[in-house]
Write the structure tokens for this entry.
Amino acid sequence: MSAWLAAVLLAGCFAGAARASESLVNHSAPSFVRRDLSGRGVSLAQFKGKVVLLNFWATWCAPCEAEMPAFSRWQQEYGSRGLQVIGISMDDSEDPVQKLVARLRLDYPVAMGDSKLGERYGGVLGLPLTFLIDRKGVVRALFQGSPDLKTVENRMKALLEEK
């Protein structure tokens, strides 16, 4: 397959994933309950009243790894103002996830995802995929691929200002 054809097909996958996921914007975020890497339960409902940055990622995704340190900094900086970052790894096994989380020293919950959870969020076909969920549990923004982190942070800060 030519590089051009591969790029066109990949772009189509990202566009399709974004369109499906965009249908969630301005609607209630799908609920979920997962176990984080420490075995503790993590549910979206437990963070109602907080702004949630929900990030779908994988260890093999370089743009995912590049943005996670910023998410960790934001958890530290904005957590007291009501931010909660949640990472959902779409890897097939937990071992590489454990290693990456330890290496990056992430200080927010990371849980394993699967196709069912991905489907609930519009079909997670391209990574990274990040949702900003307001204090009422409504998806307010979606970022597919490698977003401008300043844009994400500004949008997140605006949601933190809303009461």
